[in-house]
C-alpha cells in the first residue's frame, strides 16, 4: 500500500468515525496494524508548498508533541512558528550565522552560497523551530532534556502527517550558531533542536520496503 493510500485510509476512517453512531463505530475502527504501517510509511520531503497547517492544526500537533516522555515534567520544549515574509528574516539570520562561521574558519562565502543560504527557509511555507530550554535538575541531566525534545519533535511530525502535511526535520551546522540562537531568542545554554519544515506536496517518496530489525536487537532472558 502506498503512503497516500495509508493517509487516505486514515482520513477516511477518521471522517467516518466522526460521523458514525456508536452502532457502526466498531466497523470503521483503524486497526493496530494500519497504525503501525502508517508510522513506517513516514518519509521526509525536501520541497514543500502551500497549504501549510492552520492555527488549530498547528496547536493540535504541538499538543501531541507535548505528550512526549518528559522526566520530572520539565517541559523543556518551545515552538516558534515562522511563515510568510518572516521566512526572509530567518534567511538573513542564517546568512549572518554562515558569515560568522566562515570568518572564524578563515573563509569567505561565495555569491552562490549567500543566495542559497538566504533561500533556505523558502523550501517550505512554514518552519516550526523547536528549542530545548535547559533547566538545572539534579535528576534530569541535559541529555534527557534534549532527548525529550527530540521525542516531542517526532510526535509533532507524526501529528502533522496525520493531518495531511509533509515535513522534514533539518538542523544542520548553522542551527546553533550565535546569530541563529539570538534571532530565536535562544539562551546560550539552550539548543535549537529542530527546524521542522512543514507544508504540502504531490510528491510520492518510495516506500522503505521490509525493515530488517535483526542486527539492531538483542533479546535477554533467563
Ligand atoms: C536531529 C536531526 C537533524 C537533521 N538535520 C538534517 C539537515 O540539516 N538536513 C537534512 O537534509 N536532513 C537532516 N536530517 C535528516 C532528515 O530529517 C531525514 O530523516 C532524512 O533525510 C531521511 O529521510 P526519511 O525521514 O524519509 O527517512 C536530520 C535528522 C535529525 C534527526
Descriptive report:
Its cofactor is FMN. The protein is α+β, with helices and mostly antiparallel strands and about 220 residues long. The chain has 2 domains: about 1-40, no CATH class; about 45-205, NADH Oxidase (3-Layer(aba) Sandwich), CATH 3.40.109. About 45% of the residues lie in helices and about 15% in strands. It has 8 helices and 4 strands; from the N terminus they run H-H-H-H-E-H-H-E-H-E-H-E. The chain has helices at about 5-20, 20-25, 30-40, 55-65, 85-105, 110-120, 140-160, 180-185, and strands at about 75-85, 125-130, 165-170, 190-200. It has a 4-stranded antiparallel β-sheet. Helix 4 (about 55-65) crosses helix 7. The longest helix has 21 residues, at about 140-160. Mean pLDDT is about 90; it is low at about 1-20. The structure holds flavin mononucleotide. The site of flavin mononucleotide has 7 residues, from strand 3. The site of flavin mononucleotide (FMN) has 7 residues, from strand 3.
Amino acid at each position: 500500500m502506498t503512503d497516500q493510500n495509508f493517509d487516505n485510509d486514515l482520513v477516511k476512517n477518521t471522517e467516518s468515525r466522526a460521523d458514525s453512531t456508536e452502532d457502526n463505530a466498531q466497523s470503521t475502527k483503524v486497526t493496530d496494524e494500519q497504525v503501525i504501517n502508517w508510522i513506517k510509511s513516514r518519509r521526509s520531503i525536501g520541497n514543500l508548498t502551500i497549504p501549510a497547517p492552520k492555527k488549530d492544526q498547528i496547536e493540535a500537533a504541538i499538543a501531541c508533541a507535548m505528550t512526549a516522555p518528559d522526566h520530572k515534567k520539565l517541559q523543556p520544549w518551545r515552538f516558534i512558528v515562522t511563515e510568510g515574509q518572516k521566512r526572509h528574516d530567518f534567511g538573513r539570520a542564517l546568512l549572518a550565522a554562515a558569515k560568522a562561521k566562515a570568518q572564524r574558519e578563515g573563509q569567505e562565502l561565495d555569491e552562490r552560497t549567500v543566495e542559497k543560504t538566504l533561500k533556505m527557509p523558502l523550501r517550505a511555507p512554514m518552519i516550526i523551530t523547536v528549542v530545548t530550554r535547559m533547566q538545572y535538575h539534579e535528576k534530569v541531566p541535559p541529555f534527557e532534556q534534549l532527548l525529550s525534545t527530540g521525542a516531542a519533535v517526532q510526535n509533532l511530525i507524526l501529528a502533522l502527517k496525520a493531518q495531511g502535511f509533509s515535513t522534514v526535520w533539518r538542523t544542520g551546522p548553522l542551527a546553533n550558531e550565535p546569530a541563529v540562537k539570538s534571532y530565536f531568542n535562544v539562551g546560550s545554554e539552550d539548543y535549537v533542536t529542530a527546524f521542522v519544515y512543514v507544508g504540502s506536496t504531490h510528491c510520492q517518496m518510495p516506500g522503505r520496503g521490509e525493515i530488517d530489525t535483526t542486527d539492531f536487537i538483542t533479546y535477554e532472558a533467563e
